[in-house]
Amino acid sequence: SPIVELEQLGKVYPTRTGDVTALTDVDLRIDDGEFVAIVGPSGCGKTTLLKILAGLEHHTSGVGTLGGRELGSGAADVGMVFQKATLLPWQDVRSNVLLPVSLQRRPSKADRAAADELLEMVGLTDFASKRPHELSGGMQQRAAICRALVHEPSMLLMDEPFGALDAMTRDLLNVEVNRIWRETHKTVVLITHSIPEAVFLAQRVIVMSPRPGRIVDQVEVPFGPERT
Ligand code: ADP
Ligand code: ADP
């Protein structure tokens, strides 16, 4: 069943120097539990599309639903990972993972257990009480993934999550993300500049093109990753 359905979605940013059309005529359906990668050159609207799914931007034409609810009707049930881990430097790793919970309520014992379980899943158990600066860049992104998952969102959105990391760390994290997807059964939408990364991780690759941003191709990955 579809978790995302977009029909003729468009986005125009009004700016001082005139309107910028970031997205036009986007038709997209994403099934629950699917892993989709979005590729395309800079400026083709990848981030804008992800922000609309996350409820951080409003579309300006067309219609869309996420989990059966109309896009833009309140907080979206998603977790996000950005290129920078953006962990709070003065809080330990566990508190950083719990941040989405802490913003709503005092974390319970169960919340802490959930955070520790996520940290264990990505091999950070021994770093739960450390500060972010004591972790490598790859470890910080692992913590950011845990933070995105701690409130059990139905969808994980990742915008170039490993673009700033060295090749070896990136490859290891790709293996990690594949495992997380197989273990959590989450829907994942990943923006990447790397076709090998897209093909390794995703079941379907969505290709976008700029001026104006739109989907120009959708490729099912033959022998794509399978969930256990
Ligand atoms: P990326 O290609 O990784 O999406 P960009 O450099 O295009 O990064 O954009 C970085 C940030 O600046 C984004 O949050 C985007 O929304 C914002 N941005 C991009 N273009 C403009 C613009 N013309 N005016 C204002 N903000 C912009
Ligand atoms: P990508 O992620 O593929 O690089 P973006 O979604 O960041 O693409 O940007 C798509 C287009 O929208 C670009 O032309 C960009 O300059 C423009 N844009 C993005 N964010 C803003 C913004 N906040 N204000 C104005 N223009 C923007």
UniProtKB/TrEMBL annotation:
Residue ranges of every copy of the ABC transporter domain listed in the record: 4-228
Keyword ATP-binding: yes
GO molecular function: ATP binding; ATP hydrolysis activity
SMART domains: AAA
TM stretches of this protein: none
Keywords from the named record: ATP-binding, Nucleotide-binding, Transport
Pfam families: ABC_tran (PF00005)
InterPro entries assigned to the protein according to its UniProt record, in alphabetical order: AAA+_ATPase (IPR003593), ABC_transporter-like_ATP-bd (IPR003439), ABC_transporter-like_CS (IPR017871), ABC_transporter_ATP-bind (IPR050166), P-loop_NTPase (IPR027417)
Taxonomic superkingdom: Bacteria
Record PANTHER family: ALIPHATIC SULFONATES IMPORT ATP-BINDING PROTEIN SSUB, TAURINE IMPORT ATP-BINDING PROTEIN-RELATED
Protein name according to UniProt: ABC transporter ATP-binding protein
UniProt source species: Ruania alkalisoli
Lineage per the UniProt record: Bacteria, Bacillati, Actinomycetota, Actinomycetes, Micrococcales
